Amino acid sequence: MRPYLFITLFLSVVLVSYAIPAGDAQNLRENKKELEQIKKQLSDTKGKIDSLKTVENNLQKAISRYGERVSRNRKLVDRMRRDLKAVKGDISHNDSLLHYTDDRLLRKRENYTDMLVDFYTGRRMQSALDPLDFSGRMSQSRRRLYLAAVSGTTTREMIQVGDSIRLLSGHIDSLQKHDADLNRLRREKEARINLDKTLRKKEETSLGSVRRQSTLLRDRLVSLSEVAREMEDIIARLEEVQRQRRQDQEDLPRFSSESFAGLKGALIPPIKGKIVSTFGWKTDPTTKLKSFAPGIDIKPTPGPGGVSASAPGRVVYVGSLRGYSNFVILEHDDDYFTTYAGLSGVTVELDDVINVGRKLGDCGTGNMHFEIRKGREHLDPVIWLDIDGF
User: Fold this and answer.
1) Do 376 and 236 reside in the same domain of the chain?
2) I want to staple 59 with a disulfide (CB 3.0 to 4.6 A). Which of 69, 207, 228, 280 is the partner?
3) Can you give the CATH number for the domain in which 105 is found?
4) Residues 99 and 130 in one domain
């Protein structure tokens, strides 16, 4: 929040103490009304801080929720990776068993084929035997019986091996399907993890923005509280100040000048430099709060020199305000006032009557703030100043 938003409230009371005659109850009521407005701003600012605190808490919960989900999904992904490793091991083991069983079946078939070949080869050789050769016939019969027994055993073994092959093939297919499902779930969980991390990062960015806004509003609250306290002190003393001013009015030195209104567009700039902030309503880009700038900010041109009076007048206030350094208020004719703020040092004193161009003080390290008023009305300094003088 720019300091001039607080100094303008403070200066309003100061100017009224010099601009109105003693005992003007109406202006005092207006002054108190302005204090009530400040208190309302205090209340509104507190409400905004509470609202931002709720938003901050919700964002923190969302960030925590995303973090827990990321952690939970990471554990699931790690477990699925372990399961995938085990499944791949099972697939490899079953592949080995399948190859071994295939080799067994192949050997059984080869042995059975060799026996058949041997039997039929021997039978052809025995076909030329003498029919009366009983020993040869007995040998052939025994071979047939042996072959039938071996054939039955081999057939059963081949059927069992074939069944094992089918079971192993089905188990491998099931494991491969399970492997594909685990891979798909793992990819989905990893995609969810990346999405949650992105959402958490977005919420963290929003949380940072909310915290910055909260800090700005808390600074505004502190500044408004300080201004309200100072205004209450001033209002409490205002009647006494006005009464004393009326008593001392005849003894104050007078300044002579041409009509201040006739200087419109020809006032000497208070300092050489560049206007960096203009007069009027503005919206803060961060907090989105609207504020009224009652004057202009000038960035001084590097070099010697200081802040000078834009017109002849009398020093009616010399003081300082937190965050805005020293400032001087000059009173001119026809109820006009000029304010020079952001000074690092002041070279005039209260009730000094000065001429145009008189040095009021040195400019600080920042920008110099300049305002023009007619009574309680803010005027745009750009319209009144000689722009070519910058």
Assistant:
1) no
2) 207
3) 1.10.287.950
4) yes
Q: Give whole-number Cα distances, 32 to 87, 234, 235, in Å.
A: 82, 10, 7
Q: How many CB atoms lie within 10 A of CB 189?
A: 17
The phi, psi pair for 196, rounded to 5°, reads: -65, -35
Contact present, 136 and 129 (Cβ < 8 Å):
yes
Angle separating helix axes 25-126 and 134-248, nearest 10 degrees = 170
Per-residue CA distances from 63 to 58, 68, 190 (Å): 9, 9, 18
Rounded Cα distance between 259 and 153, Å, is 133
Picking from 226, 203, 213, 209, the residue whose alpha carbon sits closest to that of residue 49 is: 213
For 60-73, b/e burial (b = at least 16 CB within 10 A) is: eebbeebeebbeeb
8 A C-beta contact, residue 7 and residue 341:
yes
Would you state the pLDDT for residue 267?
93
Q: Which amino acid, 304?
A: P
C-alpha radius of gyration, the chain, whole number = 50
**Domain-terminating residue out of 222, 251, 280:** 251
Amino acid at 236: A
User: What confidence tens digit (pLDDT) does each residue in 60-107 have?
Assistant: 888 888 888 888 888 888 888 888 888 888 888 888 887 887 787 788
Residues 367/342, Cβ–Cβ less than 8 Å: yes
Task: Tell me the residue type at 104.
Answer: R
Among residues 377, 356, 365, the alpha carbon closest in space to that of 279 is found at 377
